[in-house]
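Usage

Read records sequentially. Each one opens with the input sequence:
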Amino acid sequence: MRGRKKSDETRLAILLRATEVFSEKPFHEVLTDDISSRMGIGKGTLYRYFESKEHLYFATIVHGLEGMREAIEGCLIGDRPLEQTIESLVATVIGYFWERRDFFVLLHRHETKLDAAERADWERGRDELINLVAQRIAPEIRGNGVKINPRLAVEMLFGMIRSVCLYRDDSDRLADLAHLVTRVFLGGVGPALECAVAPAPVSRIKKVRG
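and closes with the structure output:
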C-alpha cells in the first residue's frame, strides 16, 4: 500500500487552516510550513492532498465560493432598490477577495495547469453566481428598455469588481470602492467622474445617485 487512505475530514481541515493562513499575508509570503505547523502535521501529509501551494490556494478559493454564494443570495433577497442591492453585492464580493488579490493573477498564470475537476468546480461556482445576479437584475433591465443580455451585464459588473480587486490602492476603503463600482455600473463613468470632482459630504455620500 502507498500510505494511508485520504480522508475528506483531513482535506477539509487543511482547507480551513490554509484559508486562515492565506488571509493573514500575501500569497508569496506564505510557506507550506506555515500551514502544516498550524495543523500540527508534516508537509508530506499536506502534499498528499495538494501537490503544490498554488493548488492549495485555488482549492481554498473554490471551497469558499459556497460561503460567498450564500452571502450573495442574502444580498439579492427582498425588495430593496436595485442600487442598494448592487452595492451590497459588490461590497460582499470585494470583501471576500480583499485579502486574496493574488488569486486573479495566479488564476490567469496557472489556469491551464489546474486539475480538470478543480477548474470545473471553480467555473461551475462562478457560473452559478453570475446566473443568480442576472436573474435579479433582468426584470429591471427589461423594464427600463435596456437592450443588453442580463448575463452579459453581470459579466461586465464582475469584470469591474475583478479590476478593483487587482488594482486598488492600499489606502482605498472597501465601502468607497463598492459605492464607486455601483455608480459606474448603473450610471456610467461620466456621472461618477462628476461626483469625484465635486464630492458630497460624507454624511450625504450614500444619497448620491449615478
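Summary fields computed downstream for this record:
- The longest helix spans residues 116-143.
- The chain has two domains: 1-50, 54-168.
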